[in-house]
Amino acid sequence: MATCNRSLTGPIWKRAKHVQSSLLSKHMLSDVTTLPAVQLGDFLLQIELDDPSESVQEIARRELRETPEVVKHAIEDLKKLLEDDKDLHVPLHSEAWLIRFLRPCKFYPESAHDLIKRYYSFKVKHQSHYEGLTPSKEQNIFNQNILTVLPTRDQFGRRVLVLELGKKWKHNKCSLDEVFKGCVLFLEGAMLEPETQVCGAVVIFDMDGLSMQQVWQFTPPFAKRIVDWLQESIPLRVKGLYIINQPFIFNMVFQVFKPFLQEKLRSRIIFMGKDRELLYKHISPKCLPDNYGGTLTIPPVTGPQWLELLLLCDREFKAINSYGYKKK
């Protein structure tokens, strides 16, 4: 995909096919043979596995301590910690997988080891939601078209996830548990991307038209699961949670989540209402579609189109699911 208005055309499609073999063997845990991509007119929608650009590498050096020497020693030390951890079954052969956990921990191996343990402990605790979790088994959430990712990155290189949980959400046809599993699938996919590992992601919650019946769907157990996932268990830099178009009754929803929030995540939640200028301070209008007052020229990508892409990764998600705590 791209940052803001940089469109992708035929020659880039050819280049993507040319490099896919080496990229796949480096980043994927499965034996997928084709780089997942969907052609939408002149735009190529794909999971980006290329090495970060020089500007993103500079962010990694400045914010994550990412230099060749630090990376080398961190990988060696983390691998040793995991080899000594007899409770975990993990892909030690994959340096790309190790780096996925080292980057959000600024390449401190002990912190990365703790994150890996929390990541898999959360999966064990919520096994009913993770058991056999693949795009092919969770098609409904994407077909509802309330959960999507913008086709381009924002001006800071961040992925932008959009949840429309107001008038577009038919809660009797799609549960919040399905929404959660769709988010997991999206962010597991984002974790594959080196640029996203460095720059992170933001989430737009569009609550336009939220009804009282929908408010009652947000229970304390659900809220705790989501907050625990975001705060403790996800190896991705979540840089902002932007609440837009929320009606007054959204305060009831936030009160359910509030007791579980730690200050770091709480400080990244921004209530924007219909204040587009506030939204633009965080995401450039050049990176937003016209329904949010933006000037993004690439057509919007629907949930079903994202599903088409994610279905190509079904084997990769099965491989991801094969690792974790050993069953006793």
UniProtKB/TrEMBL annotation:
Residue stretches making up the CRAL-TRIO domain: 138-300
Any one GO cellular component localisation term in the record: membrane
SUPFAM superfamilies in alphabetical order: CRAL/TRIO domain, CRAL/TRIO N-terminal domain
InterPro entries the record matches: CRAL-TRIO_dom, CRAL-TRIO_dom_sf, CRAL/TRIO_N_dom, CRAL/TRIO_N_dom_sf
GO MF term list: phosphatidylinositol bisphosphate binding
UniProt protein name: Clavesin-1
Source lineage: Eukaryota, Metazoa, Ecdysozoa, Arthropoda, Hexapoda
